[in-house]
# Entry
Amino acid sequence: MQSFVYQCPTEMVFGKDAELKTAEEIKKYGGSRVLILYGGGSAERSGLIDRIGSVLQRGGLAFKKMGGVHPNPRLSFAREACACAQAFSADFVLAVGGGSVIDTAKAVAIGLAHPGKDIWDFWTRKEPVTGAYPVGVVLTIPAAGSESSDSAVLTDEESKRKRGLNTDFNRPRFAVLNPELTYTLPRFQLSCGITDMLMHTLDRYFTIDRNNQLTDELAEAVMRVIIRNGRVAHCDQTNYDAMSELMWCGSISHNNLTGLGNEKDFSVHQLGHELSAMFDVAHGASLSAVWDSWANYVMPSAPERFARYAEKVWGVSGGDTAEKAKSGIMLTVRFFRSLDMPTCFSELRGVGIQPDDVLHKLASNCMYDGARTVGTFCKLDIPAAYRIYQNANY
# Structure
């Protein structure tokens, strides 16, 4: 087990009607003027935004609402939201939604703490993050785990580049988790969320570290629970118990607990980010579309790790190491398909079969034109990324 420092300061407020505690949570962390960020349609149609507004009003908090966050959160919108927060003199940012809304709120919070700076400069490492205003979350989508993570992702629409930023300043002060708020999600959005939370654990589980018993078994348990309850929720997303488990797994999967003492890989996320940036496909779909190709490409470097995954997560018992490893990959792909998720480019909305020069461009973008490699389990460079994209292009 490698050395680590672990702190997850986000307060989790879980259960039915938990959103009614939002005002008292905001005041607990010093908020008095709140910018409420949300996506749009479903949060408004369900009446959730109005309910949250009423809760804040009864709590004596001033607030301003701003909807319109898109999936694969846009830099341009984050800039607008930051300007809106500054004009309102906001001292707290409340995200009502899923990962895209939360990541946008984190960008606004960093922007508020650095007046006069362009927020994209923090995501491109031109400027160091030295602080952030407090962020709270009312979660509506069990997925990205951004409600407890130190990461946030933005997409620059002009350059078609997607970048992530990890800093402890990104940790929300609190997150409200009421599983009933997930009942009206579109089925595809729920499937993307299940895929994302599973991948957050997979990208930590496939590691070069081999002597990390507790962390490995925590990760394996989280993945088993995601798979078991993902199947139930896909058929009945009003099943409170299943949605409860998924909502909690989403938070656990991305707060670094399932990777403590390991070196993260996250190459699947990096490969998927380029698909989202270039084609604006859903984040979860970009991950499932490349995982099969990535897994088969890297598996020969450590088949015993894939064999353990097959045994501990999927219950595979027969066959030698290589056969178990292949079974684990196959069963994962089969699970994605059971959620109606794409597992190759021809199934990925808006992508289809791409010409060779597009695959080369994706590979080059992923490696910042050769300035970096990605992954630790099996380091990938431009030729490796190209081959993975090529193998997924059917």
About this structure: The mean pLDDT is 94.
